[in-house]
Amino acid sequence: MASRLQLQSLLEALFEEGEEAHVYFQPPSNITMQYPCIIYRRDNSFTEFAGNTKYLHTKRYQVSVIDRNPDTELPDKVEELPLCSFDRYFPAENLNHYVFTLFF
User: Within a 13 Å sphere around the CA of 59, how many CA atoms are in the beta-carbon half?
Assistant: First the structure.
């Protein structure tokens, strides 16, 4: 099973070379975030059973890309990840928010 730290590294790798990667896991409210950024949090999990035994278990994360640039390519890179789907978009406080569901 993949670890959360592996997911952290995967998300950091989506930033352009030379660009500082701002990836936050469940950031506290007192942190000053830098943009563009990716915020992710554990959301749920998916489990399949057969013969009274768990045979498949995958963690689900909510992944948000936040950027001032409405034409950023970062959401496209997140959406290309395996088992990732786009959920919604919304603007707030002059920032563009792209929200995804990711099983990892």
Answer: 14
- For residues 20 and 17, give the distance between their C-alpha atoms in angstroms, rounded to a whole number: 8
Say what the pLDDT of residue 46 is: 85
Q: H or E element: which one contains 27?
A: none
Bridge-partner residues for 49, per DSSP? Answer: 54
What was the pLDDT predicted at 18?
86
Q: Is 74 helix (H, G, I), strand (E, B) or coil?
A: helix
- pTM (two decimals): 0.89
Does the domain at 4-103 match CATH 3.30.2000.10? Answer given as yes
Distance (Å, whole) CA 104 – CA 83: 7
Domain boundaries, the chain: 4-103
Give yes or no for a contact between 97 and 87, defined as CB atoms under 8 angstroms apart. Answer: no
